Amino acid sequence: MAVKQFKTESKRILDLMIHSIYTHKEIFIRELVSNASDAIDKLYYKALNDGSTGLDRNDFYIQIDLDAENRTLTISDNGIGMTKEDLENNLGVIANSGSLKFKNENDKKDEIDIIGQFGVGFYSAFMVSDTVTVESKAFGSDEAYRWTSSGADGYEVEACEKETHGTSITLYLKESSEDENYDEFLQAYRISSLIKKYSDYIRYPIKMEMQKSRLKEGTGTEEKEAEYESYTEVETLNSMVPIWKKSKSEVSEEDYNNFYKEKFMDWQNPLHVIRTSTEGAATYEALLFIPEKPAMDYYSKEFEKGLQLYASGVMIMEKCADLLPDHFSFVKGLVDSQDLSLNISREMLQHDRQLKIIAGRIEKKIASDLKSMLQNDREKYDKFFESFGLQLKFGMYDQYGMHKDELKDLVLFYSSTEKKLVTLAEYVSRMKEDQQYIYYGAGESYEKVLQLPQADAVSEKGYEILCLKDNIDEFALKMLRTYEEKEFKNISSADLDLQSDEEKEQAEKLAQDNEGLFNFMRDSLQDKVKAVRLSKRLKKHPVCISTDGEITTEMEKVLNAMPTGEKIKAERVLEINAAHPVFEALQALYEKDDEKLKLYTEILYNEALLIEGLPIEDAVDFASKICSLM
Ligand code: ADP
Ligand code: MG
Predict the structure, then answer these.
(1) Longest alpha-carbon distance in the chain
(2) Domain 243-383, what architecture?
(3) How far is ligand 2, taken at its centre, from the CA of residue 414, in Å?
(4) Ligand 1 in contact with 31 (CB < 6 A)?
(5) For the chain, what is the radius of gyration of the CA atoms?
(6) Considering every ligand atom, which ligand is closest to the CA of 95?
């Protein structure tokens, strides 16, 4: 029989499994039991759909057998089983998300920790075994096969005898050494406590023969001293009642955390747990989790949102997307409803009225939990927002702002005066008496926004500025239009109305006097700017770029970075600070040296672009122009 090699990635994982020292070797049992339970789920679900398999829910179980003499531990299930091809495909390569995720994160994290804390799948068997055999008979097939592997050398598959459908995995445990104890996995008591710890919620009985002791009949009476005899009895080790069916007082925080980590492949505890149930128009129980950190793929196209959907305790869908709105797509968890029929199809579910009602309720519940977290535990909310704030801001913009009202009080922005993230309500509560607008500036970072020349005039008035740094921010605010009837105003927009009447009058006159100069400058910049104007906002800097109209320069950057987006240009205005010495120089040149004025204009324009973080058109030309002045 030919020995086949594992695929490369599998080999690497195996190497890690075998050669590192693990603190949590015991998790192999959780992995194998979960696989057995999955296999039963698959067959049970099939039975429901076909109605033909003649199986009863009560027929299913998982069994653990210990054989101390031969140093084997066997985990058997009567689930769906595997064909010869399944054995090769499923156990010869890493097909599973758990192991793949482990591999991805492994570069970054201390590997011991990771293996200790989340799913690593079938391969974990090799942490404790020299050799593993998997005997399996696929449901409905007459043939059974045995898969054998002693680790990195590869694996073999051969035909074997097996009476019933399902899978039986036998681990030939390693010999204990001074540092490592493998014998513990041959002790029934130890195994039973591991099952309680990790697999208590498995919905099928996990049975094992337990040694027990009892009073010998006829002893322990007045006449006869007590004598004991030992006997064996098959026991069900797990309580099976799903955690969400238990009363709240029975479930500890740690129970929720363990459940979450096991079920949703996270190695961190959830940030927040929501448990809710309703009766009436729709009867359901929901157990929801907000993760502490986004999953690796959360902000990618590959990510699929959804909650697990159970009908009366039986899982009918792994990821029901319809149960979660996009803006709360980070929520994980499950919904169990007795109103849903077991063999409802995906298509039918989409039109299911009950499901819509449940989804609506869940959305409200998540929103209200977040709101109270924001009010009562700001530190936790800040953590949440760091992970998922982006998604909420997308949500405000998405679908033409359909959900903006639900989300506007949940989003935070960085405040120039508070130096931390604040809500819009907090901003408005601090607005100055004469302040009309909610001011914001956009840039790559908070520092860059505050360094913008345009920020000076606003800050000088004592007004707070919201600093936006995520691409979506400005779009989200534009979608909102106003908050508590206050309009939003970009500090770079041309009509930033900050001057007193007197100042305005003076400025008007100055502008008229220098109309020729400004027109000359505009013309020399050709179509790069719409106008050159006297600035009403600059304090220290000589020039800046502002924009007329709806599209600001930040939005221009974002829109133009989109692969399919049309090229869009904001209407730029070059603003000149009349109080800056450069202005006098310009005025002087206007009288006598057109060429030099052109040169200055060009340089100032480029300078303004640089400050704004916009690309200058010809850097070499810019550099040589500056040199020509020196
Ligand atoms: P995961 O469970 O995350 O998919 P594993 O590494 O634990 O990954 O298992 C790999 C695959 O092997 C499973 O997806 C399943 O197809 C198959 N498998 C493992 N154990 C069993 C079993 N007891 N019965 C049937 N199939 C199994
Ligand atoms: Mg698994």
Answers:
(1) 131
(2) 2-Layer Sandwich (3.30)
(3) 43
(4) yes
(5) 34
(6) 1
Q: For 357-375, what is each residue's pLDDT tens digit?
A: 999 999 999 999 999 999 9
Instruction: Tell me if 333 CB under 6 Å of ligand 1.
Output: no
Highest averaged pLDDT of the listed ranges 14-28, 144-158, 405-419, 533-547? 405-419
State whether residue 378 is helix, strand or coil.
Answer: helix
Q: Indicate if ligand 1 lies below 6 Å from the C-beta of 83.
A: no
Domains of the chain: which residue ranges? 10-215+226-236, 243-383, 501-549+566-630
Please state the atom number of ligand 1 nearest to the C-alpha of residue 77.
Answer: 23
Q: Calculate ∠ Cα 503-508-512, nearest 5°.
A: 150
Read off the pLDDT of residues 176-213 as tens digits, 9 standing for 90 and up. Answer: 998 889 999 999 999 999 998 778 778 899 999 998 88
Instruction: Determine the distance from the C-alpha atom of residue 302 to the mean position of all C-alpha atoms in its chain, rounded to a whole number.
Output: 12
The residues, ordered by sequence, that sit 6+ positions from 214 with a Cβ below 8 Å of its Cβ are: 228, 229, 230, 231
Cα separation, 430 vs 432, whole angstroms: 6
Does the C-beta of 493 come closer than 6 Å to ligand 1? no
- Ligand 1 centroid – CA 121 distance (Å): 7
The candidate with the shortest Cα–Cα distance to 92, out of 175, 13, 177, 26, is: 13
CATH topology of domain 10-215+226-236: Heat Shock Protein 90 (3.30.565)
In this structure, the residue with its CA closest to atom 16 of ligand 1 is 90
The DSSP code for 124 is G
**To test the ligand 1 pocket, which listed residue (9, 14, 35, 80) has its Cβ within 8 A of the most ligand atoms?**
35
**One-letter-per-residue 3-state SS of 239-264:** CCCCHHHCCHHHCCHHHHHHHHHHHH
DSSP-assigned letter for residue 87: H
Q: Which atom of ligand 1 is nearest to the CA of 42?
A: 25
Tens digit of each residue's pLDDT (9 = 90 or more) over 462-491: 999 999 999 899 999 999 999 999 999 999
SS3 561: helix
Residue type, 615: P
Choose the residue to mutate in 13, 32, 38 for probing ligand 1, maximizing ligand atoms within 8 Å of C-beta: 38
Distance, CA 135 to ligand 1 centroid (Å)? 13
Other CB atoms within 10 Å distance of the CB of residue 452: 22
Pocket test for ligand 1, best of 82, 122, 169, 266 (most atoms within 8 A of CB): 122
Which residue, judged by its Cα, is nearest atom 5 of ligand 1?
A: 121
Q: What is the pLDDT of residue 353?
A: 84
Can you tell me the distance from the alpha carbon of 413 to that of 440, in angstroms, rounded to the nearest whole number?
9
- So what's the pLDDT on residue 103? 44
Protein residue closest via CA to atom 4 of ligand 1:
96
Spatial distance between the Cα atoms of 609 and 599, rounded to a whole number of angstroms: 16
Q: Which CATH class is domain 501-549+566-630?
A: mainly alpha
Section 159-173 average pLDDT: 97
Nearest Cα residue to atom 23 of ligand 1 = 36
Phi-psi region of 54 (alpha: psi -120 to 50; beta: other; left: phi over 0): left
Specify the amino acid at residue 455: A
Q: What single-letter DSSP state applies at residue 3?
A: P
103: nearest Cα among 6, 34, 14, 198: 14
CA 28, chain centre distance (Å): 26
> What backbone phi and psi angles, to 5 degrees, belong to 324?
-130, 130
Q: What is the reported pLDDT for 287? A: 97
Ligand 1 atom nearest residue 169's Cα: 23
Nearest to residue 482, comparing CAs of 539, 532, 441, 440?
440
Residue having the nearest C-alpha atom to atom 8 of ligand 1: 96
